[in-house]
Amino acid sequence: YLVAERKLGYWWRAINVPHGMTEGEVKAKMEDGVLSLMMPRVTQEMSKKRVQIEWESEEATGST
């Protein structure tokens, strides 16, 4: 996607990258005042993560 910003003076921007991506996978280039970031496309397999949820039933806690 494309983000366009114009500001004068000193400024900085923090950009979140997908979870699990390492520094070596992200490339940055500044050319003619345009910052370009290149990173591998996140595949569905990379973004899927199964998490086991532990919970107590109402019978176990005694609540109704």
Structural class: alpha+beta
Measured between the Cα atoms of the first and last residue, the distance is 49 Å
Radius of gyration: 21 Å
Largest sheet: 2 strands, antiparallel
Low-confidence stretches: none
Number of strands: 2
Outline: elongated
Instruction: Give the fraction of residues assigned to helices.
Output: 10-25%
SSE run: EEHH
Strand order of the largest sheet: 1-2
Residue share in β-strands: 15-25%
Number of helices: 2
Rounded mean pLDDT score? 73
Protein name: SHSP domain-containing protein
Family: Belongs to the small heat shock protein (HSP20) family.
Helix/strand layout:
Elements: E1 27-31, E2 34-38, H1 44-47, H2 58-61
Antiparallel strand pairs: 1-2
How would you describe this structure to a colleague?
- The chain has 64 residues and is of the alpha+beta class.
- It has a domain at 1-42.
- The chain has 2 helices and 2 strands; from the N terminus they run ββαα.
- The model has no long low-confidence stretch (mean pLDDT 73).
- Pfam families: HSP20.
- InterPro entries: A-crystallin/Hsp20_dom, HSP20-like_chaperone.
